[in-house]
Amino acid sequence: MKKAVPLLLNVALLIGFFWLLFAIIGVQSFKTSLRRNCVWIDPSGADNDIHNPNNYISNQTGNFQFCGGSSNSTGHALPYLNADGSSSGVHKGYLCPPGSFCVSGTNPYQNTVSFDNIFQSLELVFVVMSSNTYTDLMYYLTDAEHPIAALFFAGGIVVFTLWLINLLIAVITSSFQIIREESQNSAFAAEKGYEHYL
Fold this sequence. Notes:
Blueprint: H1 5-30, E1 36-41, E2 56-57, E3 69-71, E4 77-79, E5 95-96, E6 100-104, H2 108-111, H3 118-130, H4 134-144, H5 150-183
Parallel strand pairs: 3-5
Antiparallel strand pairs: 1-2, 1-6, 3-4
Helix pairs in contact: 1-3, 1-5, 3-5
């Protein structure tokens, strides 16, 4: 493995560079996006004011619908609301149905899933890199932003899974092949001819 260390270090630096690059892109593109959810106005509220956060009721089942705005009874798009109840002035992505509003609150899963800072963004990029349950994140962000957000995940799969991880495996296997050719022995053998006893 000592002979493979310089090549492995180069590949690790390349993976680290793209990992950090995608994390920065995630923070710049999707910061606070996963805070927005559809909530229903409390029909028993005293003043029934949509700008009063105390009148909101969230889905008690634990399910959530990420959004970028809401629609009124006539079908017109309305901007999402900030945590204090003020209007953001923009709408995008999934629109909550009439009777509900898109409100910015806290991030899902006890504030652990977000692109709000570089550390959480690095964690989510690692999820994309590992190709493990990244589709949930992709659907969340396409609802909260635009369907074009899926390009971030497509790029991550191409760069990490199809290119860099395969490059890492190729460096390891080629290193073992070089050791085998130089020593006329297995890369795992402690001394020449050891593999004949296996």
